[in-house]
Every structure is written in structure tokens, then in C-alpha cells.
Amino acid sequence: MGVNIGSIRNLLVDMDGVLYRGHTALPGAADLIAYLQERKFGYLLVTNNSTLTQAQFVARLAGMGMSVPEDRILTSGVATAAYLARRAAPGARVYVVGEQALVDELVKRGFVMGGRDSDYVVAGWDKYLTYDKLATATLAIRDGAQFIGTNPDKTYPLERDIVPGAGSIQAAITAATDVEPLIIGKPGTPGLLQALELLGGRPEDTAILGDRLDTDIVGGQQAGIHTILVLTGISTREEALACGQPPDLIYSNLPALLADWRDRG
Ligand SMILES: [Mg+2]
Fold it and tell me: Cis peptide before 187, with omega less than 30 degrees from 0?
């Protein structure tokens, strides 16, 4: 606690529950992006959602009045493909339980889409999940493929409902294999370390801004950077104050955060 927001020069920004809910921008979202760009602060929009490409996020943000270039967006799908590209042999086979955007990222990096014979099983959010996909993933892992999870979110909040997310799909595969996935997205560290490398800031002047204690805040703490919670998404102030390691800063919303940053920056 006790971090001065005026010392922050690099910001990782979670999107859902911070910049928008569903397809509606939250108050202050466009102002925050404009402020980061005006001040020439380092920033990266980080999301655990692997079902959209960077270009699709750019279009979604543009539709809500935010102009952000593709290279300022890091999805868990992009982070997973980059992580594997550093470790796997060129042309390694991957079995994907996930949507087209995730497949595209892996293909772009030179991976070959395989079946049971794959070297890796990558599981993310998949709204077209079938029993066959679960079975092939299970068989590949039982045959020795490494099990990678894009992100661990068990649920995904839609405008009115909460539906199963990537974590629920991984849980089904874990039940069938007794193997836990290596998680790339928040709060896993591989994705956040990539984000910090891309930003190039020092941990002392870098923070993550998010709406979830269990992913954004825990992930930021594990990565050794400052943490800022806004109360426009999932977690409440009561939950934040009751948890073992509360976030460094808590703001009701983005306008309150921006007012404070402008005052102290
Ligand atoms: Mg969020």
C-alpha cells in the first residue's frame, strides 16, 4: 500500500470491467487512453479473452470511441503463441480446444494443427466445444502432449448471464487426465512477464489496472509490479480490503483514478 499514482509511468490495463462492459464503454475509458497517449506513458491492454484477434479488439474499441493500435493489445491467445514459439521446435504440432482467433495466432507462428499425435494441447475459451474435442485433447495429453491453458477464468460474464469459461473446459480435461495445465494468461506469470518485456518499464514505475482480485491483482503481485483495482467490474471494495494482500490503490471508477493521476502526475 501507499504507492503514489504520480510515480506510475507504465500501465497494463485489463479491458473487460475496466474499459467496457459487454459492448458499452465505461465512463472515463476514452479519457484514460487519451491521457496515456498524451503523456507518452507505456501502456498495454491485456486480456484473458483468446476468442478475438488483436484486429478485432481494435475494431471493438474503435466502436466505443477508443483509438488503439494493434501492437498495444496483448490477448492470452497472442501470449500463448509467443510463449510456445520460444520453446517449441518449428513445425511442432498443436491440438487446440479454442476458437479461430487462437488457431490463427498459432498458425501465424508456424505451428501445425494436429490431433491426438500433437506435442501440445492448448485449451482456451471455446463456445463450440464438443465431446470429440475433449476426447482428442485427453488422448493427446495421455500420450504425452504438454497441456497449456490460455487463461484460467472458470466463468465469463455476459451482459446478463455468467457462462462457462476457459477454466471450466480445462477442468474437464484435467478430470480426464489428472494433469493440470500450465496457465499463460493472468494470474499466470508467463503472459504478464511478456507484457512487462514489451513495455520495457521498471517494476517501480509500472502498475496493472484491473477489476478482478483473483486474476489482475494476484497476477500483478506475483509479477512484482504495483496493483490498482477499479470497482466497475467483478470485485468489490469489501472483498479487496478483506483479502490477504490488498491492491496498492483502489478507485471507484476511471474518472476518480484520472483525477488523482492528473493531480499527482
Ligand atoms: Mg476484467
Answer: yes
